[in-house]
Amino acid sequence: MDIRTLERMGVKESTQALNSLRLETVGSFLGIQLPVKGMARCPLPNHDDGTPSFEIRQEGRRWVCYACNLSGGAIDFVMAYHNTDFMTAKAWLMSKCGYAIRGNKRHPSGTRILGAKPRPQPTEKNVEIHESAPDSELYQELLRQSPLRKSGLEYLQSRGISNPTIDRFAIGQMPSTSVAHQLVREFGFARVKSSGLLTKNSTPNWYLSILPPDAVLFPYIEGGEITYFQSRGLVDTDKSNRWRNLNHRRMRIYNIDILTNPTVNRLAICEGVLDAISSAQMGCEAIGLIGASAPLSRQNMISLRGKHVEILLDWDNAGENRATALRKELSQFGVSATRRLAPRSGAKDVNDYLREGHTSL
Ligand SMILES: [Zn+2]
Fold first, then answer.
1. Ligand 1 centroid to 44 CA: how many Å?
2. 261 Cα–ligand 1 center, Å
3. How far, in Å, CA of 307 to CA of 337, rounded?
C-alpha cells in the first residue's frame, strides 16, 4: 500500500472519529447548550427559530435542522455554526479535544499516517533519565481496546463528571479480562514491559497488567499523543486499587497541553486528575499535579507567566502548605498565583465542590 493511500486513510479515520463526537460535547466547546437528544430550537446563529426545528438523533451524534436544511455530525455542526470550511472546522474541533484522534484502526506498524509522529527510537536525545520515550502507539492501542462501560460511567457520574467532559478527556475503562495478553501478542513482551503496563514481577511466561480490570482509565495527553496512564478503581474501599500508575515510568502532569494553549488566560493548578477535570468542567482550565514526584518544571512555570493562575490544591493542611510553597516558587518565575480560600461549604477538594452542584469556579 502506498503512502498516499495511508495518508488518506488516516485523515478519513480522524474525520470519522471527530464527526461522531456527541453534539452535547461540541456544544460545550462552543459555549452553547445542546440537548442530549430530541427536538430543540435551532442553535445556528443565522436561524432565529421560533419553533423547534432542530433535532439531535442517533445517540446524540447526528443533527438536522429541517428549516435550514442542514444536517451532519460534529464537524458539520462546527462548519455551520462558525460559517467556516471543513478543514478549519475539523482543526478547531481537534484543538478543542486536545487530542489528535487517530481513528479507530491502528495503522500497520512501520507505516506512517499523516500527522502521526513516527515512534521515537530510543536514541540518546530522547532518553529521559533512564527512561525510553513514551510508547504512544501502544498506549493508543490500549485506549482503543478500553472503551468506557456502564460501571465506569456510573462511577464518573457519581463524581459529578459530565458526558462532554468524559469525551473531551478521552476517559476509558480497563477491560474486564486482561488486555495484557492481547498487547503482548501484538507488540511483544519487551515493548509492553517497557511501556510500564506490566507488574514488576512479570516475566515473558507470566505477566499481569499493573492497571487492574474494570478500573477507569485516564490517558495523559501531550502534544496530541498519549504519554502516560493512571487508573482509578471503582470501589473506594479497595485501597490498593484506588489510583494506579504505570510501572517504572516518570509521573507526568495531567492536561499539560493547556499550559501552552494561547487561548487560555486563566488556569488552575489542582491536585490530581479528578480535580483538574472537575475544574475544567466548571469552566476553569486546569493542570493536575500528582504527588511530589511531578513538580512543575522551569519551562512549565515560565509558560504560566501573564496568566491568571489559581492554586486549587486540597483544602487540608498538606494542601495549604504546598500552596504556600508553590506560590513562592512561582513568584520566582514572575508568576503571581492566588490561593483560593476553602469553600465555606467545607468542600475539601475541587471534585467535592463540583459534587455540591456548583457549575462554575
Ligand atoms: Zn436552523
1. 6
2. 32
3. 9
